[in-house]
User: Fold 2-methylisocitrate lyase from Planobispora longispora.
Amino acid sequence: MTTLRDKAVLFDSLHRGEEALLLANAWDVASARLIEEAGAKAIATTSAGVAWSLGSPDGDRLDRDRALDLVARIAAAVDVPVTADIESGFGDTPEGVAETVRGVLEAGAVGVNIEDTLRGEELSLRPVEEQTARIAAARRAADAMGIPLYLNARVDVYLSRIGDPGTRLQTTLDRAAAYLGAGADGVFVPGVTDPATVSSLAKGIGAPLNVLAGPGAPAVGELAALGAARISVGASIAVAAYAVARRAARELFGTGTYEALAGDLGFMEINALLRNRA
Assistant:
């Protein structure tokens, strides 16, 4: 039987292979099973998709216990390693983040994303010293449980358009270095996919780089060639699924037709996928 530690070691190795780790982010058990069946080597959750599915907006608004309960359900439903997007840590203090990490491991996941966005009247970034303390607390919590948790430190300089465009690269590299020094294993820089910047980030960070891709971004082969070790799609699949729901509902209540419901996935296929794991 594969232990949690085995899965953690495997998940770490997936960031250091010849091919980039591709993550099609899941938000519930059914989406996780579909993604695994498609050939995923690991499952990542999307905090936005998880929050929406539980009736909450994204952005540190979801209750920690509800988020961890869903992580546990997903981890129990798949064989591959699971990494959880825990937003900024579901805790106001470093110890609060550590408590979340312990909960993630108890839920059966072996990785986390921790972002450095500070939400208030305006989006900003946590002071570096504060964020490194939170990352260090997460690392200590995992180490104390004997699990080599993969800690993906998210730097939101580009995503939140912090500072002058000419300074964003260096600011990101400085924050990445501080987070790695505090115990992070890799760095996630959403909000940028242009080849020159991805290449500069990959060369400057010196640890596995995670980029967020989607429509309009370079193909995975090109991003990998630029140095991206991990390529995820975030909330995009959940958004697309909800778009189908809205389109189908508007068609039903508008023209009274059902064309938006046509697809290549049937009721029995989904049912069988879940019944096989029950």
About this structure: The longest strand covers residues 111-115.
